[in-house]
């Protein structure tokens, strides 16, 4: 019985000492990195047009940075609403600056969750435009674009999916 008690005591001591020397900083290094806003966009099929546009507009790197950022991500359907040929024209290298300006209207500095969005609120985008928040019933709109999916968390911010492109309002 004494031998059993000593083994249990040794086990308990080892478990406790191991627990108290746990180093979360070093332990985190061995865990896989969390997905950035760009990683999530790349992995989301219905954001494939946005990914191509971000790459063409040279903004993919911005969404990999520490942030935090809030991305109002237009779905593929949002891009489909553009007049025929508009997207292809914007994706041309000569129109890179214009494409970048449009996409910057969809990115806001800071992590803004649905709980942070209130009716009448104005947000300032990276494109230096005003984004006006409207709450109508259980719908949240940003400059007329309806948020269809809220609060997709990322390591460097949050994504809200919108059903149309956000137009500039200065």
From TrEMBL:
<dbReference type="InterPro" id="IPR000782">
    <property type="entry name" value="FAS1_domain"/>
</dbReference>
<dbReference type="InterPro" id="IPR050904">
    <property type="entry name" value="Adhesion/Biosynth-related"/>
</dbReference>
<protein>
    <recommendedName>
        <fullName>FAS1 domain-containing protein</fullName>
    </recommendedName>
</protein>
<dbReference type="GO" id="GO:0005615">
    <property type="term" value="C:extracellular space"/>
</dbReference>
<feature type="domain" description="FAS1">
    <location>
        <begin position="34"/>
        <end position="166"/>
    </location>
</feature>
<dbReference type="Pfam" id="PF02469">
    <property type="entry name" value="Fasciclin"/>
</dbReference>
<dbReference type="InterPro" id="IPR036378">
    <property type="entry name" value="FAS1_dom_sf"/>
</dbReference>
